[in-house]
Amino acid sequence: MGRLLQLLLRNGGFVTLVFVELFCFMLIVRYNTSQAVIWANTTDIFGGRFMERRQRVSDYFYLQERADSLATVVDSLQERLAWARYVQVPVRDTFYRVTYDSITGTDSLRRKYLRPLYEYVSARVIENSVTSVNNWLLLNRGKSDRIEPHTAVVTPNGIVGIVRHVSDNFSIVMSVLHSQTQITASVEGTGAFGSLEWDGNSPEVMLLRNISKHFKEKIVPGARVVTSGYSLMFPKGIPVGTVVAPPAEDGENPHFLVVKVRLGQSVSDVTDVSVVRNLFSPEIDSLKSKIKR
Amino acid sequence: MNSSLFPNVWRFLGLILGQGLLLKQAVQAVGSAYFNVILYPMFILLLPVQLAAPYLVLLGFAVGISVDMFYQTPGVHASAGAFAGFIRGLVFAAFAPKGGFNAKDPIFAPHYVSWQTFLSVSGVFFFLHLFWYYSVEAFTFVYFASIVLKTLSSWSITMIFVILYAALFNPKQ
Q1: What is the ipTM, given to two decimal places?
Q2: Domain spanning A120-293: which superfamily?
Q3: Counting one residue from A and one from B, how many pairs have CB atoms under 8 Å apart?
Q4: Alpha carbon distance A131, A174 (integer Å)
């Protein structure tokens, strides 16, 4: 400290000069137009470069997070691929049996047999609400992106809702946080399934209703809840959430059990979603219409 | 110190007014970017030789900012003045004879040192001051060639006025 003071005293002129020049610099930039313009441009150039470099550094620190999120995406893509292959129909002829890969299946013969059941369209949520009894979302994809009403909206972590109305470029999604939501879901590994509903309370928790009473012992907190597949909209096995409390008797319907499910995908902060389109839903609908009355 | 106070105060006022009222008008009448006379650093040059560097810097700033009031360029002359105050010590050290000027001469003037020494020291001193001034005025070294040109042309004209000043007033303290 003493040495530093000595240094300051010996170079008093220089130290004074530095301070005075800094003050002058401030005056010049503040009160002189041409110099102020030059200064502003210079700081813009260097500020821009600096910000860019800083961004690069901070990007580096978020690499782990980005890698994680990319891994999740890869996982979900693989899951979808597996599911797409699952519905492939083996091509059989008199000599041998071949299963074509639906990714390479391009000619008409193959396409006829190799058919994925679902198509995924990625979309971004541009409007969202979770506070009312009936909540809606707005997506930035619509008819021109092959989105139709009555298609499911999911993320790799869970389900988000069902498309109800579409315009050319946008679509309105009935959030799962809606009083009319009824989605069939099952508790993984037990075979228990019920109807997923929202009681309008916590936006994180939904109720799985109408579960048969004999599943009471089998359902434990922490068990995964997935879509059951008994629906044209949601493919089988899409994650929904986890059981948070042991099953209880349903107050509204005492012959059945009700389970609280914490959603895997929080609707309040969802941004990137996939719209799941069942490629055969028109065909299945018209087929089903034959048994109606 | 006390005896040298009033001559310096008069010099301060006289050079500021001379610079801001007379020389500025004369230069504007000529109207060329390469014709300029900056005489006020004479005040810094003629401050007592014994004065410590921080005071020189502060007084240089003071005379500069006063001139800035006339030129409506706040900070530009002040910056050059402070720089001149700092550089004076270095120029003196470079040109001083073995014993230094310090002991017997109260101020650095032709009355005490030879005309030759006075002209070399003031030449370097005014050149550095003008170079700093034009650099700050341009505020970028993109126009380095023009800065050097302006410095050289204004320096040659200014030096005539420096000689005139020293010969006419022949300052002794």
Answers
A1: 0.88
A2: Rod shape-determining protein MreC, domain 1 (2.40.10.340)
A3: 74
A4: 14
